[in-house]
Write a structure and sequence with these properties.
This protein has eleven helices and twelve strands. By secondary structure, it is of the alpha/beta class. The chain has an eight-stranded parallel β-sheet with strand order 3-2-1-4-5-6-9-12, sandwiched between helices. Strands 7-11 form a two-stranded parallel ribbon. The protein has a two-stranded antiparallel sheet with strand order 8-10.
Amino acid sequence: MRILVTGATGTLGGAMLPALVRAGHRVRALSRKERESSGRVDWFWGDLVSGKGVADAVHGVDAIAHLATSGPKGRGAVDVPGTRRLLLAAREAGVQHLLYTSVVGVDRAAIGFLGRKLEAERLIGESGIGWTVLRATRYQQSLDQRLRAYSSFPVMLVDRSLPWQPVHTGEVAALAVALLAGGPEGREFEFGGPQVMDTEELVRTWLQARNVHRPCLPVHYPGRLYAAQRDGELVTDGDSRGVITWHDFLHPAPPALSDDFATEHTASPTSPANQPENDPDLHVYGGDEGYERPTRS
């Protein structure tokens, strides 16, 4: 199949593109930055916020993996208006299947960005296009990135009452690829990590793995979203679970050397792949749900 991926430069997109290629699909990746196509990935310039380039990107594809999101820190321009523009273009192009990646708990705690994700789900369900929704728990990779950022502070603020169920993006991507191959399901799937833990265990495991020494100060995070998380609304025992634990993610086995080892490890240090902080797509489309500093809502 020829599959368009939105949010291809985000945390999940980084796992989704190679998973689709390995499955034998021809991949189009939407980006707000001009990128050179290579192998079985064709990069298309397009902007879901303005709608520019979207019609060209969806023309001729069999399915769309819609990963793009404004995330918790965005204002929803991608999640709702951007999804609406994508659906209009997809319907005009005769696309048969759209898979949307959402968040576990949107139907139970439609607060803030979760409410925007739920509204996007509604638009997709009413679009007339064949659809599947994959709701996942927090990504291990994005939690790792958040904790790296917060470790610059002298103290880690820990709310022991919050449950987390981190899931590996590689496993989410594998399930997404399988759902795309299976065709439209017209329903929502929930997928979470193999274990539920509190913030203290999550942070302590990370500190030990990264050899970072920070005291942990017990706090109570305020706000409605944290209250919903505290009540267990953002974890799942539903359709299926991954097998890679938080500890396994933080202590990966040494990678086997591939024939392409030299190519994979000699990218220019000035290439966009090695400067994610300078990539405009990550700021607009790469907003994955992760560990947040406590804020009032």
